[in-house]
Design a protein that fits this description.
Radius of gyration: 22 Å
Order of helices and strands: EEHEHHHEHEHHHEEHHHHHHHEHEHHHEE
Number of helices: 19
Helix content: 25-40%
Strand order of the largest sheet: 9-8-5-4-2-3-1-10-11
Length: about 500
């Protein structure tokens, strides 16, 4: 692919593609292309996950490591940032000293990539979407189906804009509309997901009784810990060594946002908050330790390329605090002045120093392509109001909200997986009956935890008193029906060469 399509005789890059053959003996003719989130994720490395969701049940599944990510070349990962995020567990989350360490790591990352000759401005959604449009033509498909998750929905919407004739149907899972995503918008998303979680607890007799006023108690904890952080020692799930976890108000609020990525653990969240209020730190500390991404996986060049050209320049820094106060008025300003998940990203973007994206990348996408929109009611990252806003602009769309599910609906819900398969077979008449039976989880009670005694831990499998092997869910292990190819296309003569990967 051309690194920069506007540059004459510019250099080319390689985008890694893996085709997972359909499980069906007579597969449907149009494949499904998977657009991962992040930005900066590595879907080929975790190919077992979409396969476990049966996305290849009836048709071939195409996985693509987007430009700059894991198997693509150049690979824009940064060990210096990975090391910082590993250390962050033991630091005060939003302290000035933490900011200095963060900024130093980002500066070193940028210097590393610049020294390698990388054009940082070329790693953005417009070029990314153009890669997929070119890839479809290169692979010889007249049409394909598109599945986008998280940032991948932003990418999918832009692909719908530039290559509509090449798309048969679209699934948007946890939608990030390009016209709405901005740094000040993330605290309102968090507040919506928090409110749905707290309301679900209040609606259940046991949770409502044992975790009375959970929403107010959580806000008080954020305030208390922001002024008096606490520290616990837990086992690192990768190294099996002890690790110090420091939790202040910012870390606690961001932890609850991050739980959106762990739907299966939502049942324990009210109990863990109650434990923390009672001085028991281990469960939330262990949960935070388990959420650290292993090193070497994130393509930071694409992460910052998108955020710093498409989100950061389109809002003022002061708006983050303004929107945070409006969404979560009881939280400290020191927590709310930084967007959740993206603490100190405004500093990152000043360092990254890429041009502001053209306004068209943020325009509302209108389309008549058949589109299925999935949203989780507990999603504190891309909450259902964003999904509803996208649906109003997509004439042939169907929006389904799944109670008790967080960010990434299909990975967390067997019902959602069945609906997706039905939709791909019949985009205008999918079978959605199972959605009516989806309910929030039954929240874990303190009595249940006490009855288990020393054997009780978080559902993540991190024990306070016992060491366990971590689940190996990251590697696909190269199954026989996966054919990986690194494809190079020049911008001049449309020449394509591929080499088989292992």
């Amino acid at each position: 692919m051309p690194e920069d399509r506007a540059a004459r005789n510019g250099r080319t890059i390689r985008v890694a593609v893996a085709i997972v053959r359909a499980a069906a003996k007579n597969p449907a003719p149009t494949p499904l292309v998977y657009l991962d989130g992040g930005p900066g994720g590595a879907p080929i490395l975790s190919a077992s996950l979409p396969v476990d969701e049966h996305l290849n049940a009836d048709r071939d599944l195409i996985l693509v490591d987007q430009r700059g990510t894991y198997y693509s070349q150049p690979q824009l990962t940064c060990p210096v940032l990975d090391r910082f995020f590993s250390r962050l567990l033991g630091l005060v989350y939003d302290a000035a000293s933490t900011r200095r360490e963060h900024v130093a790591a980002t500066s070193a990352c940028r210097a590393q990539l610049i020294a390698s000759g990388i054009d940082l401005a070329a790693y953005n959604t417009m070029e990314n979407a153009a890669d997929f449009a070119d890839l479809r033509r290169t692979l010889g498909y007249k049409q394909w189906n598109v599945y986008g998750i998280s940032y991948g929905t932003n990418l999918a919407l832009n692909l719908m804009r530039i290559d509509p004739s090449g798309i048969r149907s679209v699934v948007l899972d946890s939608t990030e509309p390009p016209n709405l995503v901005a740094l000040p918008a993330f605290w309102p998303q968090a507040a919506h997901g928090f409110a749905k979680l707290f309301a679900a607890c209040a609606a259940q007799p046991t949770c409502g009784r044992t975790q009375r006023d959970l929403e107010a108690n959580f806000a008080r904890l954020v305030v208390k810990l922001e002024s008096r952080p606490v520290t616990a020692n837990v086992l690192d799930p990768i190294s099996h060594r002890g690790v110090k976890v420091t939790t202040d108000g910012g870390a606690l609020a961001n932890w609850l946002v991050g739980m959106s990525f762990a739907t299966a653990q939502f049942k324990d969240v009210p109990l863990w908050i109650g434990q923390l209020a009672g001085g028991k730190l281990q469960s939330i500390a262990a949960s935070r330790a388990a959420s650290v991404t292993p090193p070497g996986l994130i393509g930071y060049g694409l992460t910052f390329g998108v955020i710093c050209s498409e989100w950061y320049p389109f809002a003022r820094y002061s708006e983050i605090l303004t929107e945070g106060r409006r969404a979560l008025p009881g939280y400290p300003s020191s927590v709310l002045r930084e967007p959740p998940q993206f603490t100190f990203v405004t500093d990152d973007c000043r360092i990254w120093n890429v041009p502001k994206a053209p306004a068209r990348v943020r325009e509302t996408v209108r389309s008549t392509i058949a589109t299925l929109i999935l949203s989780g009611s507990f999603d504190a990252v891309t909450a259902s109001p964003w999904a509803k806003a996208a649906a109003t602009m997509l004439a042939n769309s169907r929006l389904l909200v799944f109670p008790g599910v967080g960010h990434g609906v299909a990975p967390a819900s067997a019902c959602a997986q069945a609906v997706v398969r039905s939709f791909l077979m019949q985009p205008h008449a999918p079978n959605v009956r199972c959605v009516a039976s989806v309910k929030p989880p039954v929240f874990t009670s303190p009595d249940f935890a006490r009855n288990l005694g020393g054997r009780f831990t978080s559902s993540l499998g991190l024990l306070e008193r016992e060491q366990r092997q971590p689940a190996d869910s990251l590697c696909a292990a190269g199954s026989r029906n996966v054919h990986s190819r690194l494809c190079l296309r020049s911008s001049g003569d449309r020449h394509r060469s591929c080499r088989q990967g292992s």
